[in-house]
């Protein structure tokens, strides 16, 4: 059982809203990532102080090609800014640029019961499929906890699949605080609304693992080909169809103007159309929806050095914040000597 707190650290006053989230650079962003996560992160940058990072340390558990990882991290940063992440409002950085987080991971590891991690689904799923898992995958939720606690985050927007990890984070923060005093701020998950399950080209959930993705910034001709190949049922042309639950209609709805969405629903209910027509409408809606982002992306790519400057500035700001939290944790658990602060 944890003993009573051994230090006299005063309770921490709750911070104002601080939003934080991370996204793994394990592939180019697809529509599922955008509508299910990124869009909400960008909306939340005006809700308060926001920190967003590219989780390259987490990606190391799956991407084992150094050149590819470097490219994916860079592309993720370019894509996020092109999609509307505003570096003057939100701190955008790369996870591994803040080494304080890995030290904090160790401190949290010492208060983390094995059983807590054994219940986490990423590891459990792999194990149940008889696949070998490494310690990186096993302890992934502890690194994620450090990511969150290092920035005193109060709100963490995530998809359903990550809620369990926020619970682990709260659990570890609570245990550490109980042992050593009020060091960490307990975060709350914020489930992203709207794009809960964006369908892929085969109607299943869009995911890299199912090879059914449509990437946000892929070449328009390649994107068109993919869209024209989206699987559909073999409904005859003249037969009316309920648009609800039809994956082609769902995708169209994400990107079309409301009036066009209503017209399309009407067309489904009336019948007498071929799916080719809908697919062409989707090709156009997608091109229009992301046209500004594509333009911004071209500008960023042409401005050599801009992204690196944004990430360097983000890393400086992020390190300052994570350094403060790490100092607090080091002092509280007895690693810092003679009142000399944290890392001296
Ligand atoms: P993938 O399944 O392609 O590997 P990730 O697991 O890297 O995607 O997803 C990153 C984020 O994007 C997650 O927070 C997840 O909630 C969101 N996301 C991914 N795919 C979808 C989808 N098809 N619908 C809604 N959200 C999604
Ligand atoms: N594990 C998250 C994912 O796969 C990414 C992530 C890493 C994250 N650290 C985080 C998300 C901290 C929120 C907060 O999607």
Task: Give a brief description.
The chain is mainly alpha-helical and 344 residues long. Helix content is 51%, strand content 7%.
How would you describe this structure to a colleague?
The strands form 2 sheets. Strands 1-2-3 form a 3-stranded parallel beta sheet. The chain has 2 domains: 18-197 and 303-333, 3-Layer(aba) Sandwich (Rossmann fold), CATH 3.40.50.620; 218-289, Tyrosyl-Transfer RNA Synthetase (Orthogonal Bundle), CATH 1.10.240.10. Residues 1-9 have low confidence and may be disordered. The chain is globular. The longest helix has 28 residues, at 306-333. It is mostly helical and 344 residues long. The protein is built from 15 helices and 5 strands. The structure holds adenosine-5'-diphosphate (ADP) and tryptophan (TRP). Adenosine-5'-diphosphate binds at residues 23-24, 26, 32-33, 36-37, 158-159, 161-162, 195, 197-198, 205-209.
SS element count, helices: 15
Proper CATH architecture of the largest domain: 3-Layer(aba) Sandwich
CATH level-3 fold name of the largest domain: Rossmann fold
Number of domains: 2
Distance between the termini: 32 Å
- The assigned structural class equals mainly alpha
Assigned CATH superfamily of the largest domain: HUPs
- Main beta sheet, described? 3 strands, parallel
The CATH C-level name of the largest domain is: Alpha Beta
The radius of gyration computed from the alpha-carbon positions, rounded to a whole number of angstroms, is 23 Å
Which stretches are poorly predicted, pLDDT < 50 over at least 5 residues? 1-9
For the largest beta sheet, what order do the strands appear in spatially?
Answer: 1-2-3
Bound molecules: adenosine-5'-diphosphate, tryptophan
Strand element count? 5
Helix % is 40-55%
- Integer average pLDDT: 92
């Amino acid at each position: 059982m944890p003993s009573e707190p051994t230090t006299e650290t005063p309770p921490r006053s709750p911070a104002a809203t601080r939003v934080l989230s991370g996204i793994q650079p394990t592939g180019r962003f697809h529509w599922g990532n955008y509508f299910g996560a990124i869009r909400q992160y960008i909306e939340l940058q005006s809700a308060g102080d926001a920190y967003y990072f590219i989780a390259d340390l987490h990606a190391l558990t799956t991407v084992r090609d150094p050149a590819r990882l470097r490219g994916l991290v860079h592309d993720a940063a370019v894509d996020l800014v092109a999609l509307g992440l505003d570096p003057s409002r939100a701190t955008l950085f790369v996870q591994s640029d803040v080494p304080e987080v890995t030290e904090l991971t160790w401190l949290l590891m010492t208060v983390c019961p094995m059983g807590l991690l054994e219940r986490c689904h990423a590891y459990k799923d792999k194990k149940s499929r008889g696949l070998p898992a490494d310690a990186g995958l096993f302890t992934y939720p502890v690194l994620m906890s450090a990511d969150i606690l290092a920035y005193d985050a109060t709100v963490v927007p995530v998809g359903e699949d990550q809620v369990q990890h926020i619970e682990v984070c709260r659990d570890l923060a609570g245990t550490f605080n109980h042992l050593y005093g009020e060091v960490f701020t307990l975060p709350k998950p914020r489930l992203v609304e709207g794009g809960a399950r964006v369908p892929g080209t085969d109607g299943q959930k869009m995911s890299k693992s199912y090879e059914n993705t449509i990437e946000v910034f892929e070449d328009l001709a390649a994107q068109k080909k993919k869209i024209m190949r989206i699987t559909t049922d073999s409904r005859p042309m003249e037969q009316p169809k309920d648009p609800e639950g039809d994956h082609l209609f769902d995708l169209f709805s994400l990107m079309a103007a409301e009036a066009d969405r209503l017209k399309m629903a009407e067309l489904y209910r009336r019948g007498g159309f071929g799916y080719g027509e809908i697919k062409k409408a989707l090709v156009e809606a997608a091109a229009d929806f992301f046209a500004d982002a594509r333009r911004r992306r071209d500008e960023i790519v042409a401005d050599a050095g801009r992204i690196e400057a944004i990430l360097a500035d983000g890393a400086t700001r992020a390190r300052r914040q994570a350094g403060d939290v790490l100092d607090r944790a080091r002092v509280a658990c007895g690693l810092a000597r003679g009142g000399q602060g944290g890392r001296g």
